[in-house]
Amino acid sequence: MTIGIVVFPGSNCDEDIRRALVDELGAEARFVWHKETTLPAVDAVVLPGGFSYGDYLRAGAIARFSPVMRAVRDFAGGGGYVLGICNGFQILTESGLLPGALMVNRSLRFICRDVYICAGESKAALSARLDAARAFRVPIAHQEGNYVAEPETLRRLNAEGQIAFRYCSSGGVLDEAANPNGSLENIAGVCSPNGRVLGMMPHPERCSSEALGATDGAEILRAWLATR
Amino acid sequence: MRAKIAITIKPDVLDPQGKAVLHALHDLGFSAVADVRVGKYFEVELEAGTAEPEAAIAQMCEKLLANPVVESYHFTLDEGAR
């Protein structure tokens, strides 16, 4: 299994996700520079975290026009698996590949700390391989992670099982106290109608190895790889 | 020709920055302030004689300058500016 990791100017989690997928989980990976107009032969694509184009204008707003994004859009349109983490999630919403938008955190602050998320019941391709009731401890590191969507979009996301992850307590309770950034309904990640394009604000790659002190993220990434 | 474009958060979307500024203004004693929305402002210079400048600016806003999910835009065109 080969994963294409797109690298934008300002990406900074590209090497982290490569190590997680390759060193910890045994996949192969290839970096894909954003200027490329085609994707190499890959089984899935990751848009990693970072600050593409310095977050100018809005986080992800400029990256969406990188040449490689046309290829990513075609890949997703053909049923391909795409995972956007943090800035990658922001790029997916700006591109229209996922619904909604990520606004500045309710606190207006950059938040870098561990949170808990649960997968719940969703049609995200990896959900079937994750314990729906379990709270995974995963770090977030963002200033624009406050998920918003129009009421009709939110209704559809709920009805269609497109909410992949929600912030919860360590015991798996979904409440306002567990919501770090003001996201609607504690949403931490959403997926496309076919479950194959997934965006999430938390960083599973940052807790994917014993050496990093935590491995919950490895389980999330393992589930994602297994969906392929 | 100069377009002056203002982008603001839609009225039904919570604007955390606007709320923070509102509270700061209240703290300063400006108790008459009922609400504040924080937005972005652009000045875009168009070549003289640009065809259908309103439509061009609207497309720029829809495609890049604003995120239509959460933001709305308003603009004026100043024909004399250069």
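The mean pLDDT of chain A is 96.
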